[in-house]
């Protein structure tokens, strides 16, 4: 078994052992979907003819995937470092790249499962989401979004020594980003300067890509720009996270 396969297997077992985390990883986006879906049930967007749910659902899904990817890797690396597991891995032939790629594999698996479950629930008659024929384009933008937020999680995990620190830092970053990026509140309702700020946030681009793929709204140019920018965020965040990475809290 390769080092990557062994680390992926170990990460999978560690994740599935914590049933509470698994439950809320999938339940939180569905809770928000239910709240927003019932509030805006039957309402339509005049400009496009879509139901509000067609735009609400991609926003909640984008937030859920960003949350799962960033917190998943941050908590794991913090805990592994705290338990000295990373110190043990350091003395094996496994390179740091295998540690990161193993976490990416788990994050992608969780993201795909989240997406399938979420869209399945959003399309039931209670919510009535209509999925565009462009839906296969969900996969590229979703993978790039997960990679970007995994890079962000690497940074959070590198600077955090306790679960409380991971939670505090992660929430201070991801929750405001969700509101300012338009995941919960349409960007068009914000002041012009806040709309400009949203372009500096990766969640804005993940949302743009998901709206284009799922709701069929927007232009192809916006979708590919979103993919390109997410690639840039993934590269920058991962580079910073690897630079800050520590095998032990004593370093």
Structural topology:
Elements (H helix, E strand, L loop, with lengths): L2 H15 L1 H21 L13 H30 L2 H6 L5 H27 L15 H22 L3 H18 L11 H7 L3 H14 L4 H25 L7
Which terms would index this structure?
251 residues; mainly alpha
Characterise this structure.
- By secondary structure, the chain is mainly alpha-helical.
- The protein has 10 helices and no strands.
- Helix 3 runs antiparallel to helix 7 (about 165-180) and helix 6 runs parallel beside helix 10.
- The longest helix is centred in the N-terminal third of the chain and has 30 residues, at about 55-80.
- It is globular.
- The two termini are about 30 Å apart.
- The mean pLDDT is about 85.
Mean pLDDT over all positions: 87
* Regions with little confidence, pLDDT below 50 for 5+ residues: none
**What composes the largest sheet?**
none
**Alpha carbon gap, first and last residue:** 30 Å
Structural class: mainly alpha
Q: Determine the number of helices (DSSP H or I, runs of at least 4 residues).
A: 10
The geometry reads as: globular
Helices and strands, in order, run as HHHHHHHHHH
Number of strands: 0
**Computed CA radius of gyration, to the nearest angstrom:** 18 Å
Percentage of residues in DSSP E strands = under 5%
Q: Fraction of residues in helices?
A: over 70%
